[in-house]
Design brief:
With 487 residues, the chain is of the alpha+beta class. It folds into 4 domains: 7-138, no CATH class; 139-173; 183-288, no CATH class; 296-485, Nucleotidyltransferase, domain 5 (2-Layer Sandwich). 39% of the residues lie in helices and 10% in strands. The protein contains 18 helices and 11 strands. Strands 5, 6, 7, 8, 9, 10 and 11 form a 7-stranded mixed beta sheet that branches. Helix 9 crosses helix 11, helix 10 crosses helix 11 (270-288) and helix 11 (270-288) crosses helix 17. The longest helix has 29 residues, at 145-173. The radius of gyration is 44 Å and the shape is elongated. The chain starts with 6 loop residues before the first strand and ends with a helix.
Length: 487
């Protein structure tokens, strides 16, 4: 609102508490002069026009809510007797529309001649003095209730936006399961589980046993526990939440990252990473390896129809080799050297049931050991049932080791082709052995075993290999009958 000249008012002998409700208007009932105060009309359409023109969102209209006459045009104010507004009058003069104020009517003091020098009782004040006399401007920070609340609301929204942005930035900088839970593609990449829902189901399965986990490492890394009992103090001083520790271990298997890299990603010290990996590999090796061997009755109950005439198969056997770092000892090199891989390797054997579940994992042996010798030393022979058969690759000459039937790919002579009778047998066995081949491929999909294994983890490589094999039972579904019946 624009004020081009000082305004003269006479103090009232009996001031009242009337205050103009228009934002940035300082008129009150402490002065009379030309100013009068008017209630909001009862007519609802006119009342709504008043409210809209006042532009004060927090305005609550009460019986004592007033608008001063300075916001009405001159023709809207009656000049005779009690000052009333014309019917349908609406305030139109405000600061937001830069309207000029009507000329002030001369007061009695102005029209009465007084001798020069006689006090008139008038107060000449400019806008600044008038604003300072208004109750709204007793506190400079609260010059307008509407403006103050508007600023507070804007600041509140800005704070909420900043908090949301800070949470997003913090989440992007942190490397934990919470960061990737919305993306099943990321979960498959980092953990090899099909989705976050599958990973959560696996976590609920093993979570009760995590309280008995034996911590490995120093106290400074918060990963030491001398007993298998729960340690509340250790829980509070843990470097990472337990589910993030599991996530770290799965990332270690899936991507084969170094401990230093994992420490940088999870923002923990390198020695703590080593303690977490050792603790979780021992826990999962103990939990997942219990009761995995299936009885003959369970095998028959879950036998896929695709096995047909081979329905007495109890387990499918296959060997796999993992390339490892070449040791410095020449003697050890000769023992670990593999003719098949032309490299130093570790060799292990895996048993898969006809429905696709891993039921046996052997220890790792030097790469020079034969398949037959590995089968004999693995300890699987006492587990086999004499009324059932095993299915093996053509390199397993185990007929003298087991007294029961062995399904094996026919050998091909160097000078002759396979006979016509061997063709359907070869085709059927190759088709069925895809079960164990897919499982082996899934295990080798973990980058830790797909690259050259360093000798620094030789002490725990057996447990790591067994856990990777057993995790495939949870990362993928066993082969069901519907799948096996498909052509």
């Amino acid at each position: 609102m624009s004020f081009s000249r000082p305004i003269k008012y006479q103090r009232r002998d009996h001031p009242n508490g009337d205050i103009c409700c228009v934002p940035q208007c300082a008129i009150s009932g402490k002065f009379n002069s030309v100013v009068s105060f008017h209630r909001f009309p009862r007519d609802e359409p006119t009342r709504e026009r008043w409210r809209r023109n006042v532009r004060r969102n927090d305005l609550v209209i009460k019986n004592n809510t007033r608008v001063c006459s300075r916001h009405f045009v001159s023709r809207a104010v009656s000049q005779g007797g009690r000052r009333r507004l014309e019917r349908g009058a609406v305030p139109e003069l405000f600061a937001w529309n830069d309207y000029s104020l009507p000329a002030a009517r001369p007061t009695v003091c102005e029209t009465t001649h007084r001798p020069e020098g006689e006090p008139t009782g008038e107060i000449e004040m400019d806008v600044g003095l008038l604003l300072r006399c208004h109750d709204y401007h007793a506190n400079p920070e609260a010059s307008s209730l509407y403006t103050a609340r508007e600023k507070i609301e804007a600041q509140r929204q800005e704070i909420q936006a900043l908090r949301k942005r800070l949470h997003e930035v913090t989440l992007k900088q942190s490397f934990g399961l919470e960061r990737f839970l919305a993306s099943d593609d990321d979960i498959r990449f980092y953990t090899r589980f099909a989705s976050y829902r599958h990973l959560q189901a696996f976590w609920r399965h093993i979570e009760p046993a995590t309280s008995r986990m034996v911590r490995v490492g120093s106290r400074s890394s918060s990963t030491l526990s001398t007993t298998a009992a729960p340690d509340p103090a250790g829980q509070q001083s843990r470097c990472l939440p337990q589910i993030d520790e599991l996530f770290l271990f799965l990332v270690y298997l899936s991507l084969g990252l170094t401990e230093k890299d994992l420490g940088d990603r999870f923002n923990i010290v390198q020695c703590a990473v080593g303690g977490i990996i050792k603790a979780w590999v021992h826990l999962l090796y103990t939990l997942l390896g219990v009761g995995i061997w299936m009885s003959p009755d369970a095998i028959r109950a879950t036998m896929p129809r695709v096995f047909g005439k081979y329905s007495d198969t109890q387990v499918l056997i296959d060997c796999t080799e993992l390339r490892c770092q070449m040791p410095s000892s020449v003697l050890v090199q000769s023992k670990m050297s593999s003719q098949y891989k032309s490299h130093t390797t570790l060799k292990g054997m895996m048993g898969v049931s006809p429905n696709g579940a891993v039921t046996f994992v052997s220890s790792l042996y030097s790469g020079s050991v034969s398949d037959k010798e590995l089968f004999r030393q693995s300890g699987i022979v006492p587990l086999l049932d004499k009324d059932m058969a095993v299915m093996v690759d053509k390199g397993f000459g185990i007929d003298t080791l087991v007294p029961f039937k062995v399904y094996r790919l026919p050998f091909q002579s160097k000078t002759s082709q396979l006979s016509q009778d061997h063709v359907p047998v070869t085709r059927d066995i190759v088709r069925l052995k895809m079960h164990v081949e897919k499982t082996t491929k899934s295990v080798k999909g973990n980058k830790l075993f797909d690259t050259i294994i360093p000798l620094t983890i030789a002490g725990s490589i057996n447990q790591l290999f067994a856990v990777a094999c057993l995790l495939t039972n949870y990362q993928k579904k066993p082969l069901d009958k519907a799948w096996c019946e498909a052509p």
